[in-house]
Design brief:
The chain is an alpha+beta fold and about 140 residues long. The chain folds into two domains: about 55 residues, no CATH class; about 60 residues, no CATH class. About 30% of the residues lie in helices and about 10% in strands. The protein has four helices and four strands; from the N terminus they run H-H-E-E-E-H-E-H. The strands form two sheets. A two-stranded antiparallel ribbon has the order 1-4. Strands 2-3 form a two-stranded antiparallel ribbon. A hairpin with a 2-residue loop joins strand 2 and strand 3.
């Protein structure tokens, strides 16, 4: 059932970014649940293949919230901005507001070289979201 819904509705989107579709009550309820659980997801920096500008923050792409990306920075990957375990924006030609820098700095720059870059559930390396883990996450963060 999960694979059928994913094939029909995701269209290469993350479940956190997929647009709402009016033809399935079940799918729309799943999307409604992701709005509540959104903060439980995070990005795990893995084997350094993800562009810094596209598809990795939980609020969307960085390229969509800045005015322009300097041509010198177009092919920048996430790992290019992590030096000695810390975020380093000094090499950027592209201007990032302090708000965007603070958001990126709130994401731990911990590299996991043996796994791919991806959005994960509550910092679990196995990427597995379960109803049980979602329930306990909601209980923990509701107080």
């Amino acid at each position: 059932m999960v694979q059928i819904l994913c094939n029909k509705y995701l269209d290469n989107f993350s479940v956190l970014d997929v647009p709402k579709k009016n033809d399935s009550t079940t799918w729309n309820l799943i999307l409604k649940a992701t709005l509540v659980l959104r903060n439980g997801f995070g990005f795990r920096i893995g084997n350094n293949t993800t562009s810094f500008w596209y598809s990795w923050t939980t609020f969307g792409t960085l390229a969509s919230v800045i005015i322009w990306v300097d041509i010198h920075n177009i092919s920048l990957c996430i790992h290019d901005l992590i030096i000695n375990g810390n975020w380093n924006f000094n090499t950027l030609y592209t201007f990032l507001s302090s708000n965007i820098q603070n958001h990126v700095k709130s994401l731990p720059p911990c590299l996991h070289n043996d796994v791919p870059d991806r959005i994960t559930w509550a910092d679990h390396l196995d990427d597995i979201y379960t109803t049980r883990s979602g329930y306990f996450w909601l209980l923990f963060f509701s107080f």
